[in-house]
Amino acid sequence: MTGNAVEIENVTLHFPKQRNALKMMMNMFRRKKDRFTALRNVSLTVKKGEVLGIIGKNGSGKSTLLRIISGIYPADEGSCKAAGSISLLAGLGTGFSGHQTGKENAILYGSILGHGEEIMVSKLPEIIEFSELDAFIDEPVRTYSSGMKARLGLAVASAIHPDILLIDEVLGVGDPQFKEKSKKRILDLVKSTGTVVLVSHSFGLMKEVCDRLVFIHKGKIVDVGEPDEIIKLYYETTGS
Amino acid sequence: MDLNTLNYELGFMSEDSSGPVLKEVGGRGVSWKSPLTNITVLFKHRFLVRNLVRKEIRGRYRNAMLGYTWTVLEPAMLASVYYFLFIMLAGNPDKMYPVWVILGVIVWSCFGKALQGTVSSLSRNGQTIHLVYFPRIIFPMTAMQGNIIISMMSCFVVLPIMLFYDLPVTIYLLYIPLSILMAGFLAIGLGMLVAPLNCIQRDVEHLFRFIVRAGFFLSPVMWTYEMALERGVFGEMVLYNPMVVPLTMARHGIAGESIGIPWAGILGSLGFGVVMWILGSYVFNRYEAGAVKHL
Questions:
Q1: Shared domain check, A98 and A74
Q2: Out of A83, A99, A104, whose CB is closest to B21?
Q3: CB–CB of A83/A163 below 8 Å?
Q4: Closest of A49, A152, A163, A161 to residue A104, by C-alpha
Q5: How many domains in chain A?
Q6: Are residues A54 and A81 in the same domain?
Q7: Per-residue pLDDT tens over the stretch A191-212
Q8: Contact criterion met (CB < 8 Å) for A112 and B48
Q9: Which of A72, A81, A112 is opposite residue B23, by nearest beta carbon?
Q10: pLDDT tens digits for B141-154?
């Protein structure tokens, strides 16, 4: 397949700063608004079938960029276009409803991620098996440890194959054995999905799987290119 | 080489159909059709809606031995308290008075809880909102639907009442579920109108908790529309309160009578709901995207 899977053009995104009503009203009339600009004039294209990695320091705008692509935040300026279904893997295990069982939560979480009833019903045995929760699957989720929640989250989130997969630092959940298994599962998912955008701090993995890397610093894209060069640039810019 | 690429190579397909095309992400915002699309979106996402409503209902009676029995117990117990309060304040009421209070409490709780639920629907679901995008109108809608279903369960309390008072089964009994639907409908428009604002300033939530409490006394929950009619001018004044219609409707339903409110009053109440729905839809769809940045 040729062409672009994601086209981001001159996207700027601001976050409001005040939580005080009076200051906010004053802000509305001010020329120079007091706000935090998370992304500043960001342009990026993701080609169909490529694995693109995003690196940058904490708070540089990596996750915000993924949220723009998945439509959680609309851009204040510029446009973001995508081809096909998008799925964001982030914060596994959050948003579960504690008093419902693991099974019910798997279906709830699956439907939140946008899957239909037939898909969830057919994938459920596979999800339960992968999560390794055994008898716990019929217990309320509030009795789960955080690792167990993350396992269930990963099992649900990775059971489906979207056109574009966005992964936000979800590698390495659970105990060492499960960590290995989850890494393999995600790598399989990355391979079987055409287009992947990956945010991670583990540069070893990024070098291994990514075709190109993007370096974001303070809400701006510094450079896009070969993984080795970009990682070198990262250390040069941020200091090692 | 799969069939699509083969067809493409041979020139059977245009480039567009070789895969998904680029589209603007999200595709939301306000259009003149918003009040309509906010309904159709529920059918499109019905599996998700069903699961979220179930979560809403399950969350209410978690870890409770009596579970869903509370949906009936709560209004019955509340009504008995108000009954004694009323006897103390106003003296000897008619023998149907406890029934009027119990139905009043059920219909008003539906409105009050649906209103508070929709007002806080975005701010409560911050985690889900930051995880994935789906039309956000689903949050207030599921909050309302959950409360309507719980109130419908409460309605089973009318069965023992009807036996005790030896009331006939009539077609007018349909007024009871209808009044609950109407109470929910009156709540959601208002809730949608302010839900985005509540993300920015939680004061809205506290204000609406007060409004629900004050409205309890200003609406015919402990008193009835007929009592207001006996006070002359108040009978006309109370019709400006849109909740008078569903509350009175439920009571006339169990008594097996027609509604007994002038048509203008009924249309006014329904009109209020429709106007609020339209206004709420525009405001919600216009402002939710900016508001969730505050979560």
A1: no
A2: A83
A3: yes
A4: A152
A5: 2
A6: yes
A7: 887 789 989 888 888 888 899 9
A8: yes
A9: A81
A10: 999 999 999 999 99
